[in-house]
Specification:
Acts both as a biotin--[acetyl-CoA-carboxylase] ligase and a repressor. By secondary structure, the protein is α+β, with helices and mostly antiparallel strands. It is built from nine helices and 14 strands. Helix 1 packs across helix 3. The radius of gyration is 21 Å and the shape is elongated.
């Protein structure tokens, strides 16, 4: 999109860039450049224009539009087919709809507001406007169906690293799909798949990141937090979303080489919030107590019971809780 390309040029210039230079680089007329600049101003961008100097980007809105994320993005394929919605029932559901219509690998959907978001094990995940990153993307991997669950763990690593680099907030991971800051959930991940017998059709990876949420309802205060609450400052969402996509693409391509987590297990276990801690493993109405020993190369959680017997737990069948609270 031309508007995305112009915005990227303005961001990378850091100073005034001449209209003539933009015309030559982007192969458009000066009138077209002027129209795109006005369109960006209407979207909340502060753009100065000075005769004989050109245009300079002064300020940016905290938006997660295709132009804003796209102009910050450095990926080969993830997010290159991008759709933004002001309001959407669920980004995961929209990716499923697009996948059934033949959307390509790497298609990404972001919503400013999400009304019927889904969490793991059937829980709801609502996303209000202006305060989070509600994002899902489509993968069409040539991998075994049983290995697809590991993509959740890859996504967790990508989010953790992106949050740390963009905001300075050091987070941990609660196996298999939550990012934790100061003992509370700052991001949830939901991976869903479509398969026939042993053949994988596609995978949907959905992320809900609490970025600029100022407060939570009483029933969630002990379980949930946001980047703004933990850092004390508002964070621009688009660069963070772009960084998550960049790290996921990088980790995903590394994962494809082995179709396991052998390259990631050590890093993951260093970030595991309940590593070597006593945990509750809840299977429907049954509870068991173990010591968490980290993940293995298949992404399964290794646990040890009171008698010293070791076993593994599969992510699809359980919920893991700390002894005293959420983690």
């Amino acid at each position: 999109m031309m508007k995305t390309r112009i915005l990227k040029e303005l961001k990378e210039a850091g100073d005034y860039v001449s209209g003539q230079e933009l015309c030559e680089k982007l192969q458009v007329s000066r009138t077209a450049v002027w129209k795109y600049m006005n369109a960006l101003r209407e979207e909340g961008y502060g753009i100065d224009s000075v005769t004989n100097r050109g245009y300079k980007l002064l300020s940016m809105p905290d938006s997660v539009t295709a132009e804003e994320i796209g102009s910050s993005l450095h990926t080969k394929w993830l997010g290159r087919n991008f759709r933004f919605y002001e309001t959407l029932d669920s980004t995961n559901l929209e990716i499923r709809r697009l996948a059934e219509e033949g959307a390509p690998h790497g298609t990404t959907v972001v919503a400013e507001k999400q009304t019927s978001g889904k969490g793991r094990r059937g829980r709801s995940w609502l996303g209000d406007a202006g305060c989070g990153i509600w994002m899902s993307f489509l993968l069409r991997p040539q991998i075994a169906v049983e290995n697809s669950s590991m993509l959740t763990l890859i996504a967790a690593l990508a989010v953790q690293k992106a949050v740390m680099e963009e905001t300075g907030l050091r987070c941990q991971i609660k196996w298999p799909n939550d990012i934790i800051a100061e003992g509370r959930k700052v991001c949830g991940i939901l991976t869903e798949l479509s398969a026939q017998m042993d053949e994988l059709n596609y995978v949907v990876v959905g992320l809900g990141i609490n970025v600029n949420v100022k407060e939570f309802p009483e029933d969630l205060k002990e379980k949930a937090t946001s980047i703004q609450i933990e850092t004390g400052r508002k964070v621009r969402r688009a660069p963070l979303a772009a960084r998550v996509l960049e790290y996921f693409e990088q980790y995903y391509e590394q994962f494809l080489k082995t179709e396991d987590l052998s390259a990631f297990a050590d890093d993951y276990n260093r970030l595991l919030v309940h590593m070597n801690q006593r945990i509750r493993v809840v299977r429907e109405s049954r509870e068991d107590f173990y010591i968490s020993r980290g993940i293995d190369h298949k992404g399964e959680l290794m646990v040890e019971d009171d008698a010293g017997r070791k076993t593994t737990v599969l992510s699809g069948e359980v919920s893991v809780r700390g002894i005293l609270g959420y983690v």
